[in-house]
Structure formats: C-alpha cells, structure tokens
Amino acid sequence: MKKFLAALIVGSLLSGSTVSAEVRNYDGVGEYIMSDFETPDVAKQRAKLYAERNAQEKAGVYIKSYSRTSNFELVDDEIITMTNGILKVISVDYKMIPMEEYGGIMYRATILASIDTDKVDEWISKGVAERESLVEKNLELQRRLDEQEKLIAELKIKAEKSKNPSADEKLKQEFAEADKIFMSNIKLEEGNRLVLLNADWSYKMAVDAWSEAIELNPLNALAYEARGYYYLYYTEDYAESFNDYNQAVKLRPNVADNYYYRGLCRLNLGDIDKAKKDFERAINLNPQMSAPYGELAFIYTSIDPLKTFEFADRAIELDARNWRAIYSRGLAYFNMHNYEAALEDGKRALDLGCGDAYQLIGDCYGMLGNRDEAEKYWELARIRPAFG
What we know:
Helix content: 55-70%
Strand content: 5-15%
CATH topology of the domain at 289-388: Serine Threonine Protein Phosphatase 5, Tetratricopeptide repeat
Order of helices and strands: EHHEEHHHHHHHHHHHHHH
Number of strands: 3
Largest sheet: 3 strands, antiparallel
Distance between the termini: 10 Å
CATH superfamily of the domain at 289-388: Tetratricopeptide repeat domain
Radius of gyration: 25 Å
Shape: elongated
Strand order of the largest sheet: 1-3-2
C-alpha cells in the first residue's frame, strides 16, 4: 500500500477478558401484508426485514450484557448498529397467508440468525472514531428505511381509496419506485454484512451488492461510501474510490468522513493541495475527528515542521493511537535533527502498526551512530509492508 494511505485506526482486541467466544442463535418473525400494487419478492424482503429486527432486538439484550463482562458499556445506538452489522441469517422460511378481510396476501418470514461473540469483541476493539462513523451510517440507513416504510403506508391508503384506473397506473409506478429504493437499501445492508465474513469471495459479492444498490437507486450515498471504502483500503484503486467519494460528497455534503476519505484518495493520486483542502473541510465539519489532523501533520512534514507539531499534537490529543500523527511528528523531529525525539515517536508509531516507521527508526539510529541497529531496521523496512 502506498505510504500516503492511512490504515484504519483500530485498537487491539481487549486483553484480560475471561469470556470464551461463542455463537448464539436467535429466531425472529416478521409479517407484511402485500397490496395489489406490490410484488411477492419485495413483500418477502419486507417481511424478512421485520424478522431481522425482531431477532436483533433479542440479540441486543445479550450483547449489552456481554459488553459489560468485557468492562465496556455500549450505548443503545452502538448495540443496534453492531447487531445490524454482525447478525448472520442462517435460514429463512416464508409462508403466504391469504388475508380475506384485507383483500390481500400476508407474507410471514421466520428466520434463524446467529451472533458470534468474536465479532462483538472486534466491535469493542475499534477506535472511537470508527465506531461513531459506523453508528452514524447505520442511523442514517435506518432513518431512510423508516421513511420508506411510512411512504409505503401512505401509498397503501391511496390504493384503498382509488377507484380511477389512470390513478391506479400512477400508484403502480410510485410503488415500483419505492420498491427500488427499498431494495437498494437491502442490497446495501447485504454488502455490509458480507464484508464481515472477511473472505475474498465475500468482498467480491459485497462490491456486487453495493453496485446493485447504486443501480437501483443512484442517489444512495451510503452505497457509494461503502464501495468507495472498499476500493480505498482493500484494492487500493484510488481512482475508483475517488469517484465514489466524490459522488458521496455531492449527496451528503455535511459528512466529515466523505471529505476525509476523498482527501486520502487525492493524496494517493498526488493531488496534495486538494487533499489538504478536503482534510481541512473534514475538520471544519467535525473538529473532534482525529484522522484528518494526522494527515495534515504528514503533509506539512516537508513544508512547515511547526505546523506538523500543531496538527500532530491535536490528533494525538483526540486519539492517542493515531499512529499517522505520531509517525509524522517523528519525521518532523528528524528533519529538525532531534533524532532522539524522532526515534521515540518512530518506535511508538511502529508499536501501533506503522510499517513505515522501520525506515525512520533506522535513519535515527544511523544519525545517532548505532550502525548495527540502523542496518537491522533498514532491512526490516525493505522486506516489510508499509502497514501492518
């Protein structure tokens, strides 16, 4: 991975937990009454969504208790986001039930789903900024699903009152458009869950799901963000990632993350001036976001070391594990010939996962006259990847 790209900052898994990993199963039931203007496939998906929510609610009770055993209290929004992301549907059973009093058909979905406590530990180990970002995206997705649910309810009322064939045709089109938006969000969730399986095939399927979500609804900003993130961190296709985040910025211009990730794309594509502006915009939108401060610290290492210290110190104040900021500060110290301080930051950055720090540490030892240590770290810099 190019040295400009900051890897996602996550904490190490909690140590000292005495809870053994386990998989717990939950059932869920959801029902949906289909109107004459809807298709069975979409009606089944709506029933399945309600069943998943039912199972998630049950799993959430356990997760809240489990998190306490790890000395980590999760707030409700985090629990909802986590269960939505890590719930794995094992089986789905659909039953079609005629509803004569409503003049329609009800689909009942019964699911069996599981929660792996290893996935809960992974969530707990994430950095604060990452968890906040995931919660924000999930809340936005749930808000959109709720809005769409209200729209369908309104359309059903219109359908019940309609006696005009021409009006029925318009209603049919409105239902079809609403169904596309709904299925787009379902595909978005499908892709998000596939990524958690952490396999080559699941990543490919996730991209296909996000692409289908965008095809169904070209205004689905969350799908662009999910796919853009994949291109950025997994395939390092910075041009494709930039295209997705550029679209995400247009659709959600008040989201700091979108400017930050677009800035990373620009940095890796060599457009440093525009990357700098994106990081500054991210900070303006969210002054408590550590990551863009770290990137600005890196940009200024060869321009203005004093600026590097300013941005790095702020980034570290917000997130003590921001290795990008620590590494950049080390570079600034090195450029100012303070090799002892540079060495200290280099080692600290390395401990946090920054492979680029091998070179910095070797250079520091070289300037301090310790040739043996310098040669060791230079060799590690040659054979090790930049990150991890």
